[in-house]
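Q: What does the assembled structure look like for these inputs?
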Amino acid sequence: MNVRDAAERSGLPSKTVRYYDEIGLVVPDRRGNGYRDYDDRAVQKLAFLKRARQLGFSIEDCRHLLSLYEDKDRASADVKALAEAHLKEINVRLAELEHLRDTLKHLIHACHGDNRPDCPILADLSGKE
Amino acid sequence: MNVRDAAERSGLPSKTVRYYDEIGLVVPDRRGNGYRDYDDRAVQKLAFLKRARQLGFSIEDCRHLLSLYEDKDRASADVKALAEAHLKEINVRLAELEHLRDTLKHLIHACHGDNRPDCPILADLSGKE
DNA sequence: CTTGAGCTTACAGTTACTAGAACCTTTATG
DNA sequence: CATAAAGGTTCTAGTAACTGTAAGCTCAAG
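A:
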């Protein structure tokens, strides 16, 4: 099937599907006219990628996951290790983001928000600590 | 003072300080030999930027904040609105990240992680739902 | 046969830097 | 005074993961 159909079935934009071909993630066959030709297996891989990307795995992680996915004899320990490393990163990002939110919340609360030029947000940003 | 000193005092890498000059965020004077020459005011602005970037404001937000910071007659309502919009984005990101973490946690827990090729993480990624 | 949709490639732009190369200036030392 | 190290300059390219745009080829329908 053509790229558009593969894109629709996998839920990705066609631009992205072409991009995944370009970087060698999912390389389709080509027809006589040069058009990409995706089969069901390729569409499955694209859908797999969409899900993995949504879960925040990087493209390189995805490449790895895809090869494990392809490999019937892969060890699930490999996959688990990858997922665990990823979870760790997510927890770090979460903590940072929460801290950031608290700081911002505090600043917004302290800011009167009227037309007086005195503003605690700017005061904090300028390093009043 | 030279770029290195300005960088050290503001807590930014000198590369970044030069970059901020290039994009017109903090443009220092130049000496006869072409060297950048930062004064205390410029260093203050750099430090301001560091803090604002740490809080997750984009460069364009920072440009806006900087002009408000410079403007003695700015309305703190403007700053507050910017901060509130930013907080909203952060909350969205937080919710997404939390959801992601829960999914991943669940998957890792369900994965036995030994050498058997059967792996629930890959099963989920392939769209078993 | 023409029109329009859909395919192709290639190149630029996005964000916020970072790395490296080639070259110039200043400062410290023998 | 010569020189070498340290630090300054600009420029280009690379990063992640696409997205947008343009020029041009192919195909299906009327």
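Helices of chain A lie at 3-10, 14-22, 40-54, 59-70, 76-110, 120-125.
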